[in-house]
Amino acid sequence: MKSWVRKTLRVGVTGTLAATTLAACSSSGGPPSLTWFINPDNGGQIQIAKECTAAAKGEYKITTSPLPTDATQQRQQLVTRLSAKDSSISLMSIDPVYVPELSYAGFLAKIPAADATIFSKDIVKPAVDAASWQGKLVAAPFYANVQLLWFYKSVAQQAGLDMTKPVTWDQLIAAARKTKTTIGVQADQYEGYTVLINALISGAGGKIVENPGAQAKDVKLGLDTKAGEDAVKIIEQIARGGIGGPALSTAEEGQSLTLFTTTSGAFKGGFLANWPYVWSTLTPAQKKLIGFTVYPQTVAGTTSKPPFGGIDIAVGAYTHNKPQAFDALKCITSAAHQAYYMVHDGNPAANETAYTDPAVLKAYPNGLAAMILKSLKASGPRPQSQYYGDLSAALQQSFSPPNSVNSSTPKKADDFILKVLKGEKLL
Amino acid sequence: MTTTVERPATPQPAHAKPSKPTLSDRARQERSLGWRLSAPALIVMLAVVAYPIINAVYLSFFNKRITDPNSGGFIWFRNYKVILSDSKWWDAVWVSVLIMVITVVIEFILGMALAMVMNKIVIPRRTLRTIVLIPYSIITVVSAYGWQYAFAPTSGYISKWLHTLTFGSFDQNYDWFGHHWSALIAIMASEIWKTTPFMALLLLAGLAQVPGELQEAAQVDGATFWERLRRVTLPSMKAAILVAVLFRALDAFRIFDNIFIMTKGSQNTTSVGVLAYDQTITRSEVGLGSAISVLLFICVVIITVIFIKGFRTDLSRVRGD
Fold first, then answer.
1. Band (B134; pLDDT cuts 50, 70, 90)
2. Looking at chain B, which residue has its C-alpha nearest residue A419?
3. Which of A119, A42, A99, A101 lies closest to A325, judged by CA?
4. Among candidates B274, B249, B250, B254, which has minimal Cα distance to B263?
5. Full-model pTM
6. Would you call A267 and B173 a contact, using CB atoms and an 8 Å cutoff?
7. How many Å apart are CA A349 and CA A357, to the nearest integer?
8. What Cα–Cα distance (Å) separates residue A236 from each residue in A187, A206, A240, A384, B61?
């Protein structure tokens, strides 16, 4: 009985070892596998990965792995893996605001000069700036999001607003009051709130960080300024009297869009500051009623700085297949793929030439494509800092909930953020 | 397993220090077998429990930020000084204690009532226990999302119900997550709904141990329901109550999921667990985060000691008979 068991075990173990060895041999014989960590989308990045794998003709194979939905959590997962020197990260889709931090930590592979020229060719300047750290391109811009102002034509008309010209936040607030409608913005304690605060301050000619790239102890902030005051006044007005809707303190992109598309009850949609994906969510009937224009001005007469977003793709510092990863990156970020992604997933291309693509013009009609490109060129990035995560979270905390924001908020935020950066306060 | 201890052959003077008892061969073998049998479990426990705790204590003395190559200096107790002198820490402790006290009290009352119902009902006992357990079987994150939607200002039903029940005086678009106390109520509602069944089951086990003859004797003596509950039932199930309340108190103090999903700590609803997460994971400040985790561990130990001393029950001596 015992010898029978032993024989069976021996055969089993030998078989398993043989199968494992064979499997290992077969995998080492194939093309290098590149894992691309993608932000969740409508399947566009997976399709591009397939097309680039086919175009590589056996040079490499791209497999995708999804990151969490939220940008902050995407960063967390990448930081956790890269701090453990994870070599399985060949390519990663990252929010531009985290490019400085990941680059400073040494988590991004250096881009060869020749490739950097290719990655920045025909790319809008704000996208190139956002993908750079200390003067060098460290990631390839893939798509470049920008917020627009969406509005109901009837509401604007009723309020007497001329939407062919830039409008100010004050005008919108007055219009919303007059027409008893809402202005959809993002003011939950999350990254979208930083987007709003930064856009308001930039629009008034200010900067949240005066000296980007400075060490924590040397960072100078520009919140307690005239621009900060202007931003606070706008948030105060939106937060009061229900102009920002009943749940402004928990409003993210989706909630603000829902508020905007509500056409009955006490909170009817009037205006919305949101990304261009809004267009793809509207029904044909809604598209007839809704218009779009450039982001509102903080100060009348001063050109607005529309919020800039998007996704850059970087090569992991610890991947064993860097040359193949950079080749794959050229394929992924090509103008044709950016145009495809803009049509398929509703996220605007960073490459200017994509905006002449007939498919893009068809998907973004009535001058929407041109409006996106115009806004992109005028857009303002969020602060470039290796401590962006801390800075953004501390800013959100200081300005939350929005109905508590008042004239003392910028000064308090300034003090709090500096203490957090110096390690003297908890976040 | 028994242990035989050999007595010393010659009597020792009263003032002399007793010599170390000598073990018999059999006792030695049994002790050795015991060590060998428990060694794998001990090694695993050391690897998964002791190592992370020791590592956290070690890391808490460093100024370590994962994404900053220039960080990592040894700073002694500075992290602890920063934490203990920050109002955010004390706010988080207050929120955690508040949630712990309120939820445990409500859960105990509801759990006791449920346990008594389940103890009395003979048919359909199994079905009833299964139904009661449903909330506990739901993952906390899912439960948190469910309650978040229930409290949502425009689409949730809680505000609408309250609006109807108060004849329109309660705002049906009330922003529960926009204010400190209302956000805490929503968080605690989810916590109570989810874990009351756990409390009820533990109390039911204790209730089953209460001798029936004691209850009958008290009834014959004319004791009312409340008198029987206070003087017979509760004292007889002291150990079960200690276990139930202690387990839930520790869980409630370490609350994370509900807050993380519902408010992410906004409106001053950050608990100690969320604070530790924010520093360690969100900020990548592993030194500061480890120090908070160590303090959280100390808090848990203090709560445990308070409960065990307060109940004056030695769990190791409690038997089911």
1. very high
2. B82
3. A119
4. B274
5. 0.82
6. yes
7. 11
8. 12, 18, 6, 26, 42
Residues in B closer than 8 angstroms to A267, CB to CB, are 154, 173
Taking residues A73-80, report their average pLDDT.
93
Angle CA B46–B52–B58, to nearest 5:
120
Burial of B82 (0-12, 13-18, 19+ CB in 10 A): buried
Helix pair A191-203, A388-398: axis angle to 10 deg: 80
Distance from C-alpha of A99 to C-alpha of B192, rounded to nearest angstrom: 42
Tell me the sheet residues that pair with A33: A61
Inform me whether the pLDDT recorded for A13 exceeds 60: no
Q: Mean pLDDT across the stretch A291-315?
A: 97
Could you tell me if A102 lies within 8 Å of chain B, comparing CB atoms?
Answer: yes
Structure tokens at A58: 């056996």
- Nearest 5°: phi and psi at B195? -110, -5
A249 and B178 in contact by Cβ < 8 A? Answer: yes
Q: Is A106 on the interface with B (CB under 8 A)?
A: yes
Q: State the pLDDT at residue B103.
A: 98
- pLDDT tens, B35-80? 999 999 999 999 999 999 999 999 999 999 999 998 889 999 999 9
Q: Residue B176: is its pLDDT beyond 70?
A: yes
Distance from CA of B171 to the nearest CA of A (A): 10
Q: Is B284 left (phi over 0), alpha (psi -120 to 50) or beta?
A: left
The answer to whether A353 contacts chain B (CB < 8 Å) is no
* pLDDT, average across residues B23-37: 92
The verdict on A214 touching B (C-beta cutoff 8 Å) is: no
Which token pair is A349? 């291309």
- Report the pLDDT averaged over residues B236-250: 93
Alpha carbon distance B33, A253 (integer Å): 63
Q: Locate B183 and state its tokens.
A: 């956000």
Residue with the larger pLDDT of the pair B297 and B318: B297
Cβ <8 Å between B68 and A386? yes
Q: Once rounded to an integer, what is the mean pLDDT over residues B92-114?
A: 97
* A contact residues 252-271, partner B, Cβ 8 Å cutoff: 258, 262, 265-267
